[in-house]
Automatic annotation (TrEMBL):
Pfam families: Death. It comes from the Eukaryota. The lineage of its organism: Eukaryota, Metazoa, Cnidaria, Anthozoa, Hexacorallia. Residues 250-318 form the Death domain. This is Death domain-containing protein.
Length: 349
């Protein structure tokens, strides 16, 4: 087993983390994801700990990472409004996620507003914390643990639907913007022209989606097809998806078929080289604005937002007992309670 590099709490924060790719990746897997529901905190709260103004950190050139579990619950809210908590618990039992079932049981025992017959769609208004806690547990990818996708399959959500929960990207609707550009520059282009270009780039799946439209013929103008929102949503989803192989061509290849210049296409979607994860962008920013910050400062920041999972990532790269030593004088309620429990355990021995 490869030994991890060991750092000291006094080591410079930015230089140390940016020079250790494994540590950086571990931290952004924990902190990049922004949860809409519940109280789980992320990289933005670390930025606020270091007194970086919201206007500044919102300008970081980074991609937004969402929770696929939360997207799944939003899907259930709109497509399966009759789904009750008992149904979700049954799905969780079937994938052996008793830890997540315990979250639901705990809420049922604590609050009168929640029981097995409660509609899942009502949680968004009454108890969004439940969704946040479940998402935090089901999003984590660990060997031996079934995740949100297994629950989606157990709840009989079609695979074609749930595979988009993780890949959807609201920050960059490139295909939608491409069609708007084509509509402006080539107002007389037809659905047949579009199908011809798609045949050239071998996207038969998109052609099939277009031909499902019963409202317009292939001789109709593209702008008429764009008015069929259901068909266009499917078309754009197919062309926006990032494929594992470069042999499958996407919206940018379609744009080139229309003769749109590369600089215009680049404006529709930032290149991958320009996109960095928000946690990395934050650490780079700290390297410039607060070069004196140390790993000990990061430990305090992560502790302050209750992200023990991120501290566990950092712990591997520090000497045993380092984190506890840094936080030994912390007087927060959580630490005081932990000390009382330790004292009680020691007294009982």
């Amino acid at each position: 087993m490869e030994k991890k590099r060991k750092f000291k709490p006094s080591d410079p924060l930015a230089k140390t983390i940016l020079d250790c790719l494994d540590l950086l990746e571990g931290l952004f897997r924990c902190l990049d994801k922004e949860y809409k529901y519940g109280s789980c905190k992320c990289w933005k709260h670390v930025a606020e700990y270091f007194e970086i103004e919201e206007q500044e950190y919102q300008n970081f050139n980074c991609s937004q990472v969402h929770s696929p579990t939360e997207v799944m619950f939003e899907y259930l809210q709109t497509r399966r409004p009759e789904m009750i908590i008992g149904g979700v618990k049954g799905g969780l039992h079937s994938i052996s996620r008793e830890d997540v079932v315990c979250v639901l049981v705990e809420y049922e025992q604590t609050y009168d507003t929640v029981d097995s017959d409660t509609l899942v769609c009502s949680l968004f208004d009454s108890d969004p914390d439940i969704i946040g806690k479940i998402a935090f547990l089901l999003d984590v990818q660990k060997k031996g643990l079934n995740t949100w996708s297994d629950l989606a399959a157990s709840l009989e959500i079609p695979r074609g639907d749930f595979k988009t929960f993780e890949t959807c990207n609201k920050d960059c609707p490139a295909t939608e913007r491409l069609f708007e550009l084509v509509k402006i520059h080539y107002p007389r282009t037809t659905v047949r022209d579009l199908i011809s270009h798609l045949e050239e780039i071998k996207r038969q799946d998109v052609i099939v989606a277009i031909r499902k439209c019963t409202k317009v013929s292939e001789d109709a103008l593209l702008k008429d097809l764009m008015e069929d929102l259901d068909v266009m949503e499917n078309v754009c989803e197919l062309l926006n998806q990032k494929q594992r192989t470069k042999r499958v061509k996407n919206w940018s290849h379609l744009g080139r078929r229309y003769g749109i210049k590369k600089e215009y296409l680049d404006d529709l979607s930032p290149s991958q080289e320009e996109i960095v994860c928000p946690t990395e962008a934050l650490i780079q920013s700290l390297g410039g604005s607060q070069p004196y910050s140390t790993l000990a400062d990061l430990i305090w920041a992560i502790h302050s937002i209750d992200r023990d999972d991120a501290l566990e990532v950092l712990k591997v790269y520090l000497q045993d007992g380092c984190i506890a030593n840094v936080l030994r004088l912390c007087d927060c309620e959580r630490c005081e309670k932990a000390r009382e429990q330790e004292k009680g355990h020691a007294d009982g021995l």
